[in-house]
């Protein structure tokens, strides 16, 4: 068997070396492509983790992850270090139509604007949504390292759109910082992506991370009646202090946390220094009401305590864990240290904080925190519990479960949702795999299916869920099978697409 599993129960508060990088990385870089050097003599930083590619949660258009409209779920898989046309680390995306038929997307494909270039990292982020309102899913692909001004520098970045059609994805427009009214610089435009219906008009808008723009930024593309624009921490209604190492926009998710029919954007800034270096933060942006709420582990009602290098916000996922019709937010804190005698900036045992939506959004929500201190398994300083997250209904009872990547352990942990309080420790499931940072990226697909990536090994594993009402994770480890593999060190599975609302 490829996988083993153990199930049990418990709750409480609660990262394997980082994926290969093109150059040195700053602490809590959300992708392995940043070329900004760490301080001389610094200890190894907490490992970079993929930005959450899912726009899970409510207030999405409702389009399934179905690019050709045949009623079967499709999956896009990024390999941002794949060689293309003789160019190393140019990047590619494999689309598995119906999880069977493969089609490769690169910048050298006919009709795709531009061409593949060395270290472009096509596939540095993915998002799926209905951007043109035709009820077929479209795909956004980040190319965050495109246009590097010199070798070893960060890229200017861009986003390539592909539109769904009866014959599958077809090339669409390219978006870059110039389209959002900014000069193109080494800002890594497209390092994170998320889709959601931000204005309530029935189709999706696209949020684009620009973590290298000063302390970072988020571009908003597709709002009705408004040209694309970029928000930063210094924007008038966001009103946050900005530091160059914050990485605001390195991770993104969307969800309707207040139940008003319009999604908000959750913006991870895993390097944010609010009161402690690299503690991390998440800012919820309501772009229609022009309201911002910053959450840290020191915020009122948020479980835990902020510490240096925690990386709060290094992964995000939204889902409805208590079936109340409002999206809830899961926040990965993979740098959280639980093991005694840890040194500064070591990888971290990791925790996950869940903040529940309410009529007033996350501002009035309650929270809880989870770690392997109270779940199956034992925390270790290299586990990075919470480095990847995905949410979806894996047991078919109407509330969402939460899958938590533990790539340092080579595992994924699944918590069940319940209508009587949300996530529960009852029957929690730990599934372990073989190497390659198994658990570094996750996706939940329609039909109660969980995809787990091991990008270091270029392998995807599919696990199926079963229908069972109540506090059950749904996932059946005995159904595990290898879904797809790729040779070489392409980081196949670095980012995945899942459900879109």
Automatic annotation (TrEMBL):
SMART domains from the UniProt entry: Int_alpha
Signal peptide range: 1-21
Keywords: Glycoprotein, Hydrolase, Repeat, Signal
Region (Disordered): 27-65
Protein name: Uncharacterized protein
Organism: Planomonospora alba
UniProt superkingdom: Bacteria
Extent of Low complexity compositional bias: 27-46
């Amino acid at each position: 068997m490829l996988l083993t599993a153990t199930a049990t129960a418990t709750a409480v508060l609660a990262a394997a070396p980082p994926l290969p990088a093109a150059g040195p990385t700053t602490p809590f870089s959300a992708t392995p492509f940043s070329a900004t050097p760490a301080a001389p003599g610094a200890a190894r930083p907490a490992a970079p983790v993929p930005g959450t590619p899912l726009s899970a949660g409510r207030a999405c258009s409702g389009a399934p992850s179905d690019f050709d409209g045949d009623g079967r779920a499709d999956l896009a898989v990024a390999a941002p270090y794949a060689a293309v046309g003789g160019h190393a680390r140019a990047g590619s995306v494999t689309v598995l139509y119906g999880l069977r038929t493969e089609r490769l997307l690169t910048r050298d494909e006919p009709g795709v604007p531009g061409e593949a270039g060395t270290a472009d990292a096509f596939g540095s982020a993915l998002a799926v949504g209905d951007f043109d309102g035709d009820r077929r899913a479209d795909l956004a692909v980040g190319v965050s390292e495109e246009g590097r001004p010199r070798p070893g520098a960060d890229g200017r970045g861009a986003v390539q759109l592909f539109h769904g059609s009866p014959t599958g994805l077809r090339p669409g427009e390219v978006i870059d910082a110039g389209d959002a009214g900014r000069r193109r610089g080494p800002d890594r435009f497209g390092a994170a992506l998320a889709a959601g219906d931000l204005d309530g008009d029935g189709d999706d808008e696209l949020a684009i991370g620009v973590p290298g723009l000063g302390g970072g930024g988020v571009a908003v593309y597709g709002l009705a009646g408004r040209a694309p624009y970029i928000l930063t921490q210094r924007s008038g209604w966001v009103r946050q202090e900005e530091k160059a190492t914050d990485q605001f926009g390195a991770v993104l998710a969307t969800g309707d946390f207040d139940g008003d029919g319009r999604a908000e954007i959750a913006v991870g800034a895993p390097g944010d220094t609010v009161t402690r270096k690299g503690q991390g933060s998440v800012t919820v942006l309501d772009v229609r009401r022009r309201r911002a709420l910053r959450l840290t582990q020191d915020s009122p009602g948020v479980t835990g305590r902020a510490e240096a290098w925690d990386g709060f916000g290094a992964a995000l996922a939204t889902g409805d864990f208590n079936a109340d019709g409002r999206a809830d937010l899961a926040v990965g804190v993979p740098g959280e240290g639980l093991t005694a005698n840890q040194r500064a900036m070591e990888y971290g045992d990791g925790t996950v904080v869940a903040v529940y939506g309410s009529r007033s959004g996350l501002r009035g929500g309650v929270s809880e925190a989870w770690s392997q201190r109270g779940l199956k398994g034992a925390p270790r300083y290299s586990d990075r519990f919470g480095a990847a997250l995905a949410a979806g209904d894996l047991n078919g009872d109407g509330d969402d479960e939460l899958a938590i990547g533990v790539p340092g352990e080579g595992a994924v942990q699944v918590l069940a949702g319940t209508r009587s309080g949300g996530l529960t420790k009852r029957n929690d499931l730990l599934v372990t795999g073989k190497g390659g940072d198994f658990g570094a990226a996750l996706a939940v697909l329609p039909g109660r299916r969980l995809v787990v990536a091991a990008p270091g090994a270029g392998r995807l594993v599919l696990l199926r869920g079963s229908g069972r009402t109540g506090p059950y994770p749904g996932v059946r480890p005995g159904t595990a099978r290898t879904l797809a593999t790729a040779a070489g060190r392409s980081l196949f599975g670095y980012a995945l697409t899942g459900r879109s609302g």
